[in-house]
Design goal:
The protein is of the alpha+beta class. It has one domain: Jelly Rolls (Sandwich), CATH 2.60.120. About 20% of the residues lie in helices and about 45% in strands. The chain contains 2 helices and 10 strands; from the N terminus they run ααββββββββββ. Strands 1-10-3-8 form a 4-stranded antiparallel sheet, with helices on one face. The longest helix is centred in the first third of the chain and has 17 residues. It is elongated. The mean pLDDT is about 85.
Length: about 150
């Protein structure tokens, strides 16, 4: 019994010497970050949906979603990250023909909020990419206000 115990301790020691513990990877919590965005929503706007932005430890260069937007409706996309501002998360909106409509990036400036007045009802593609992002992790919410309000 004691011999088996000593052997187990020896194997345990060898395991940790040759296979040291790896540094734990940072957890991305886009849902939590999206909820933080909801708290910052502009007055008069109604929450519509949220989008998860998880670069999965720098393995994803682009994250894409589709959504339907309606003509004559004002939309606001708000990006929240664990770092102040958008942390290099670039949102580009494309129309149904994949033509870029607008973006929250102007040269090296990335705004965490993107306002868009829709001019044509249809399917739009939302593409999140990263420009010098530290965490590649965030949440984005979409809210709207009808132009007749």
């Amino acid at each position: 019994m004691i011999k088996t115990f000593k052997k187990s301790i020896f194997l345990f020691f060898i395991f940790f010497v040759f296979f040291p513990l790896q540094k734990p990877k940072a957890q991305c919590s886009p849902g939590t970050l999206s909820r933080q965005c909801i708290d910052k929503m502009s007055d008069g706007f109604i929450y519509l949906k949220s989008f998860s932005i998880d670069g999965q430890d720098n393995t994803r260069e682009k994250i894409e979603y589709t959504t339907v937007l309606s003509k004559d409706t004002q939309y606001i996309f708000q990006i929240c990250s664990s770092i102040e501002g958008a942390d290099g998360i670039v949102l580009t909106i494309y129309d149904s023909n994949r033509n870029a409509v607008t973006s929250n990036q102007e040269e090296t400036i990335i705004d965490p909020e993107l306002k868009y007045m829709c001019t044509s009802t249809g399917i739009y593609y939302l593409t999140f990419t990263f420009f010098e992002s530290k965490n590649r992790c965030g949440g984005c919410i979409l809210s709207f206000k009808n132009s007749q309000d």
